[in-house]
Write a structure and sequence with these properties.
This protein has helices at about 20-40, 45-60, 65-70, 75-85, 110-120, 120-130, 135-155; strands at about 60-65, 90-95, 105. The chain is mainly alpha-helical.
Length: about 160
């Protein structure tokens, strides 16, 4: 189904910015970050904090390690996010009695209540995309497929990732 790129002769066209899938994804990501920055301001959340809250609203109490796995964030990035959410009174972190190395995160009542305010965010974001719901579902599925392929490629060693 996919074309064998090893048989394609490289050309200068491959190095044009407008031909880079990585740049298209980067530009889309920056546009979404700007959209979410404005949309999340009334909630007092940054986009990464919103992602943490989404995981907790969905899964409830979780170990920090599991939150990091779900969000693809390392502990050096996740820990400061959790500290700020805890300082805002939205989550509580507790060391596990069974394993002192494990920290569990749970929503406070304020964090749980914030979910009701966030319910309109997906509607606003969907409207901003200019896509209908079926197109959004298809795009998300294709991006998930792309992520899996790039992850697998990274495990296999160097290869064309950006082009």
């Amino acid at each position: 189904m996919s074309e064998d790129l090893s048989a394609v002769e490289p050309s200068a066209e491959w190095l044009r910015l407008d031909n880079q899938i990585c740049f298209a994804l980067h530009a889309a990501s920056r546009a979404f970050n700007a959209l979410y920055r404005d949309a999340l301001q009334p909630l007092g959340l940054t986009y990464p904090q919103y992602l943490v809250m989404l995981v907790l609203w969905e899964d409830g109490e979780l170990p920090v390690k599991r939150i990091g796995e779900r969000l693809r964030l390392d502990s050096g990035t996740l820990s400061p996010l959790l500290k700020r959410l805890e300082a805002a009174g939205l989550v509580r972190r507790e060391r596990s009695a069974a394993d002192e190395r494990s920290v569990t995160v749970r929503l406070t009542s304020e964090g749980a209540a914030l979910r009701a305010q966030a319910l309109q965010l997906p509607v606003r974001v969907t409207g901003a995309t200019g896509l209908d719901l079926a197109e959004i579902v298809e795009l998300r599925q294709r991006l998930e497929q792309l992520t899996r392929a790039v992850d697998a490629s990274a495990l296999d060693g160097p290869g064309v990732v950006c082009g």
